[in-house]
From TrEMBL:
It comes from Streptomyces olivoverticillatus. Keywords: DNA-binding, Transcription, Transcription regulation. PANTHER family: HTH-TYPE TRANSCRIPTIONAL REGULATOR RUTR, TETR-FAMILY REGULATORY PROTEIN. Gene3D superfamilies: Tetracycline Repressor, domain 2 (1.10.357.10). GO terms for molecular function: DNA-binding transcription factor activity; transcription cis-regulatory region binding. The keyword Mitochondrion does not apply. This is AcrR family transcriptional regulator. It holds the Pfam family TetR_C_33. The keyword Chaperone does not apply. Residues 39-58 bind DNA. Residues 16-76 form the HTH tetR-type domain.
Length: 213
């Protein structure tokens, strides 16, 4: 046994960092194995602490998985916000609103394809659609993808693109279409599509949603 292996595992973190360390470890495991990989023993091993240390912050696996799910949702949201921030200048307010609305869908689909394990984890546990908690990384507004979609739809109404009487419940229609495609692309019969085909499918679904609204 080496001197390194004889070192005791850390069972305390200063300033409450242990909770965030466990969530971060859960995110790393989820990235590779999805929500099924987020188990207490594996997370504590990943974080380098004794198994019982997790119970200081999480009552059980369900509580841990919920926290990791919330953090993953926040990462989906930050990808959407980055997509919106990268939009080129628009000709007018209406065009800018359309661009921000479409960026919600393109960012959502991009995250699903680039981070399928985290995407599965993000929506594995029912949670608060209005809150995305992630203390493990800086940046982002704290809004969920659902809230960002709602804000984009509100902006369409404000700029005269979307009739006000079509606004109620529009989140559910748009989200259902884009989320359905995301699941088909990562876990369904469309998972073997060439990236160019997948990108085209995403663009056309967003076109369809935009025209339908």
């Amino acid at each position: 046994m080496t001197a390194e292996s004889e070192k005791p595992k850390r069972d305390t973190y200063r300033h409450g960092d242990l909770r965030n360390a466990l969530i971060k470890a859960g995110l790393e495991l989820a990235r590779e194995g999805g929500p099924e990989a987020v188990v207490l023993r594996a997370v504590t091993r990943q974080a380098g602490v004794v198994p019982n240390a997790a119970y200081r912050h999480f009552a059980d696996r369900a509580a841990l998985l919920h926290a990791v799910s919330q953090a993953a949702i926040a990462r989906v949201a930050r990808t959407i916000e980055a997509e919106q921030a990268a939009l080129p200048p628009a000709a007018d307010a209406a065009a800018a609103a359309r661009g921000r609305f479409r960026a919600v869908g393109t960012g959502y689909l991009r995250f699903a394809q680039e981070e399928p394990g985290l995407f599965r984890t993000a929506f594995h546990v029912p949670g608060d659609l209005a809150h995305a908690e992630d203390d493990t990384a800086a940046g982002g507004s704290g809004l969920t993808p659902y809230a960002l979609l709602g804000a984009a739809l509100d902006n369409l109404v404000e700029t005269g693109v979307l009739p006000e009487d079509r606004r109620p419940g529009a989140e559910f229609l748009a989200w259902s279409a884009v989320h359905g495609l995301a699941v088909l692309l990562i876990d369904g019969p469309l998972r073997d599509l060439h990236p160019t085909q997948a990108h085209d499918a995403g663009r056309r679904v967003i076109d369809m949603v935009e025209r339908g609204l």
